[in-house]
Design a protein that fits this description.
Blueprint: H1 4-14, E1 26-30, E2 33-36, E3 41-44, H2 47-50, H3 59-69, H4 82-93, E4 99-103, H5 106-120, E5 127-131, H6 140-145, H7 149-152, E6 162-165, H8 170-176, E7 181-186, E8 189-190, E9 196-197, H9 200-213, E10 216-220, E11 244-247, E12 258-262, H10 264-267, H11 283-298, H12 301-322, E13 326-332, E14 335-340, H13 345-353, E15 356-357, E16 359-361, E17 365-368, H14 376-394
Parallel strand pairs: 3-15, 5-6, 5-7, 7-10, 10-11
Antiparallel strand pairs: 1-2, 2-3, 4-12, 8-9, 11-12, 13-14, 14-17, 16-17
Bound molecules: pyridoxal-5'-phosphate (PLP).
Amino acid sequence: MMKMDEVKNLDKKYVIHTYKRIPLVLVKGKGTRVWDSEGKEYLDFVAGIAVNGLGHCHPKVVKAIQEQVSQLMHISNLYYIEPQVKLAKLLAENSFGDKSFFCNSGAEANEAAIKLSRKYGKGERYEIICMEGSFHGRTLATLTATGQEKYRKGYAPLAPGFKIVPFNDLGKVKEAISSRTVGIMLELIQGEGGINVAEDKYLKGIRKLCDENDLLLILDEIQCGMGRTGKLFSYEHYGIEPDIMTLAKSLGGGFPIGAMITKDKIASCFAPGDHASTFGGNPLACSAACAALEAVLEENLIENAAQVGDYFIEKLKGLQKEYSFIKNVKGKGLMIGVELDFEGKDIVTKCQEKGILINCTVDRVLRFVPPLIVTKEEVDKVINVLDEVFERSNQ
Ligand SMILES: *Cc1c(COP(=O)(O)O)cnc(C)c1O
């Protein structure tokens, strides 16, 4: 096995530098744990940024992939694909949606949603209203939909047809609607924006605006979906349904796959040839996702996310009482942010030294998105380490 420095040097020489890397080579994972190239163990509360929702190498997902990989890895969408129809059926049975389109990533799922919306608008309506602080991906259209300047810088001219308004401000959404508007797109918990939760009245108001103006409500559940917030999909907390939902991240239990899910009536705006993906919905990815979704539904993980999430938030609020530099504890289920009044990167490093992986978004918000299998004992361990690290930051 390569040593840290060797991997680091090869990365520097041969990989394009789009990532600011943490000096750590992770080589093995099991459940909530990962190990680095030196054999050191970590409790993983980053979980591939909410990708490893089932923990690392969940046995059902591993088995499904092993069985499928020796049977058939890829076949073109020119032909029918059995694991793809199974996954589409499973998603329809467990969501508001009727039909799915499959792709390989979150950005692609949102691209599909944007393209379908434009078809729905028949060339007359094409504008999509998006939110400040959002994150929808790195393709040109999805970064135009992303309401954070740092991702857009240097990429002008961006795609036309997007309006960005402040998050959780219904009045501003209403003002932005024009005769060109076809949809409203948002995350119910903004992940890359710092764990900002959409308010109940706000989302209900948006649903009403969509109904009154024939607009599509597009929910990006790429990070907050698949059980993470204590419901299979976050919209279930609000008593409303979207018209289009996008999924990726933990959909494949660690294997890359994205999906766009919608109602029959809206799905019919796409005709054969209108949209496609070579790898989208391939047998391997769909087998992994079927196994992952079954595990989420059958292994009490949604309830665990709700219960352990509540416990975690309560403990973090306890820390907030002790440390005045904690400005806010926010989130739902196992998607939690701790807002500090200083940059969090040193806290992340100190936690890592003590065997806990966490990360930080928008510079000052510590983010916790552990696997849904996490236990209260593991949360206690993280709380104790945070307490030690915060104590030292206080001096
Ligand atoms: C990660 C993420 C995306 C982009 O997914 P990729 O697979 O990186 O393209 C889009 N939306 C949200 C909410 C995300 O968290």
